[in-house]
Design goal:
2 copies of one chain form a homodimer.
Chain A (H helix, E strand, L loop, with lengths): L4 E5 L2 H4 L8 E6 L19 H15 E11 L3 E2 L2 E2 L2 H11 L3 E10 L15 E8 L13 E2 L2 H4 L7 H10 L16 E2 L4 E4 L15 H10 L5 E4 L6 H8 L3 E6 L2 H10 L5 E7 L7 E6 L1
Parallel strand pairs in A: 1-12, 1-13, 2-3, 2-11, 6-10, 11-12
Antiparallel strand pairs in A: 3-7, 4-5, 6-7, 8-9, 13-14
Chain A binds a DNA duplex (19 and 19 nucleotides) through loops.
DNA sequence: GTTCCGCATGAATCGATAG
DNA sequence: ACTATCGATTCATGCGGAA
C-alpha cells in the first residue's frame, strides 16, 4: 500500500479550507499554548485564545469524518499566580460549535520541568481532550492493551521506594518499548491516564510530543490506510509516526523553519508538498509539488 | 493541646451560616457528584449543579481565612457518552465569586481496576481543584517531600565518591549548578500529580476518599492547631485524619445516616454535636450538645 | 560490547528590577 | 501603575564519551 504524507506551509485556518469534507479519520495535535513558544509561534494572549482557535476548530470539524476523533493536547498557563480559564472556555465554546467532548485523558509527564516556587509545585500533567462529531466513532481498543500490572498479583509487596517506581512505569499507561516482555503475560485494557516522559533531547530539535503519544492515539482510533491530520505539525512527530504505522497523514505548520525541518526529515519521494508562493501584489497562488 | 472535632447535621448552605468569618484554615471536601449517590444525597442534576453549589461556595469563601485554601475533589459525570461541562462552568462561576483558581491537582488512582466500555476506558483520575482567597496563602511544602527518584541512586551515589574531591578543588563545575546541593539529597518536592490508591476495603460504608488524600492536603496547607472544614463529610474521613494530625475539624452532613455513623466512630468525649430538632410547626431550633 | 558517568536542557514560574 | 525582561530555582532523561 502506498502511504501518502502531505505537508503544507501556512496558517491552518486558511490551509484547512483546501481539504475536502469528511476526509480525515484522526486529528491529533498540540497547538501552541497561550503565550508559549513566542520564539517560533506568535504567542497568543490567553484572553484571545478561544477567539483564535474557534475558526480552526470549525474547519477541523468539517474535514473530520463522522466516525473520526479529534485529540487536542493542551494545558492552561499560570497567569499572576492563577490558572487561566481559557481551556475551560474553549471546551464550552467547542461544544456550541457541535463537538462532543467525549473524554479527557491525562498525560502524566514523568520528567516535568524543574523549579520550586513558594505557592506551587511542578506541573507534571497535561490535558488530552477527546472530541467527536458523533457518539459512534471508531475505537480499536484491542490495539492498546497492556500487560497486567504487578499490583494485580501481589498486593502483599510493600511499598518500598523502588517498588513504587517500578509499579509506576508499568501501571496503566500502556507504554513501554520492549513489547517482547509482554508475551505470555495476561493483558488488560489501559486507563485514561498516560504515563510517559517528554522527549527533551532529540538530536537537533526538541519535540514536546514524545512519539508514544500520537502512536497510542493512532493505534486506538485508526487502522492502516486511514488518514491522520496534525494542523500544528511542528517538528513532525505525528507525520513520522503515521508513516511508520502505515497511515496517510497531513501536516500543516505556519513556520517555515518547521516546514523545512520536516521536509528534510521525510523521504522526498514520499512527500507531497504545498507551499504558498507570493508574487508581489498578485493574489497569492499555491504551488502544488508532487515529488 | 485539646483538639476539637465538631459535627453538624444539616444542609451546608444553612449550617455554614453559623460559623464565624475567617475561621477556617483548610476546606477539603468531595461533594456529591451530579446525579451520583442518588440514594444518599438526592442527586443534583448536572444542569443545576452550579446553581446548587454557588450558595455553598459563597459561605465557604466567608468562613475561610485569607491565608486558607479550599480543595475541591470533583469529577464531571459522563452523560449520554459525553463529559458534562458543569465543572468547567463551576470554576468560571467561582472565579466571579472572588475565588482564585490557583491549581488543579490530579489524583491518579493507582489501583483502579481495568475496565472497558465500547467507547471509553476506565476512568482512573479525578480533579482536585485548589481555590484561594488571596495569592498569599499558607503552604508548608517541606511537609510533603517525597523520596528522590531511582535515577539518583545510580547517579549520585557514585558521583559522591569521585566528585567530592573534584568539587573541593573546582567548585561549581560539577553536576547541575552546585553539586553540594545534590549530595546526600534523598527527598525532593512532589509534583501536582498524586498517585494514590483508592480505598477498597472499607468496613461497612463506601468512602471514595482514601485517608492519604486529606492527609496530604492537611500536611501541605495547615499546621497543628489549625482548623479543617469538610462541608460534605460523608463517612468522616476528613475528621478522623484531622484529629489524628492534631488539627481542629468541623464536619457537616445532610444525611442522618452519615451523621450517626461518624458520631459512633468518634470518641463522644471529644465530639461537639449540633443537630437541628424540629417541633412541629414551631420555628426549627437547634440543640447544641457538648459531651 | 557493556556499563558507567558527565552534562545539557526542557510548553515553568516567581519576584525583583528596569523602562 | 503597568508591562517587559532577567536571574534563580530544580529534577529527570537520554546522549555520548569514558572505563
Amino acid at each position: 500500500m502506498e502511504i501518502r504524507t502531505g505537508l503544507f506551509l501556512g496558517d491552518s485556518k486558511d490551509v484547512l479550507k483546501q481539504l475536502p469534507d469528511s476526509s480525515v479519520d484522526l486529528i491529533v495535535t498540540s497547538p501552541p499554548y497561550a503565550d508559549q513558544r513566542k520564539g517560533t509561534y506568535g504567542g497568543i494572549h490567553p484572553d484571545k485564545y478561544v477567539e483564535w482557535f474557534l475558526p480552526i476548530s470549525a474547519q477541523l470539524f468539517r474535514v473530520l469524518k463522522p466516525t473520526g476523533t479529534f485529540v487536542l493536547n493542551i494545558k492552561e498557563k499560570v497567569v499572576a499566580g492563577e490558572r487561566s480559564t481559557y481551556v475551560m472556555e474553549l471546551i464550552i465554546a467547542m461544544r456550541k460549535q457541535g463537538w462532543l467532548w467525549t473524554e479527557e485523558f491525562i498525560w502524566h509527564k514523568k520528567n516535568s520541568f524543574p523549579g520550586k516556587w513558594p505557592n506551587r509545585f511542578r506541573d507534571s500533567w497535561e490535558r488530552l481532550l477527546q472530541f467527536n462529531k458523533s457518539k459512534h466513532f471508531n475505537m480499536y481498543q484491542n490495539e492498546v492493551k497492556v500487560p497486567i500490572g504487578d499490583w494485580a498479583k501481589g498486593r502483599l509487596k510493600n511499598l518500598s521506594a523502588t517498588d513504587k517506581v517500578r509499579d509506576n512505569t508499568k501501571n496503566g499507561s500502556g507504554f513501554g518499548k520492549n513489547v517482547s516482555n509482554w508475551l505470555g503475560k495476561e493483558s488488560v485494557f489501559p486507563t485514561n491516564v498516560l504515563h510517559l516522559a517528554t522527549e527533551c533531547n532529540n538530536k537537533n530539535h526538541s519535540a514536546a510530543f514524545p512519539e508514544e503519544l500520537p502512536e497510542w492515539f493512532i493505534k486506538l482510533f485508526t487502522k492502516q490506510g486511514d488518514t491522520v491530520l496534525d494542523p500544528f505539525v511542528g517538528s513532525g512527530t505525528t507525520l513520522f509516526v503515521s508513516k511508520r504505522m502505515k497511515r496517510h497523514s497531513i501536516g500543516i505548520d505556519i513556520t517555515s523553519e518547521y516546514y523545512e525541518m520536516v521536509k528534510s526529515r521525510i523521504n522526498p519521494a514520499e512527500l507531497y508538498l504545498i507551499e504558498p508562493v507570493k508574487y508581489g501584489k498578485t493574489k497569492p497562488q499555491r504551488r502544488y509539488a508532487i515529488r
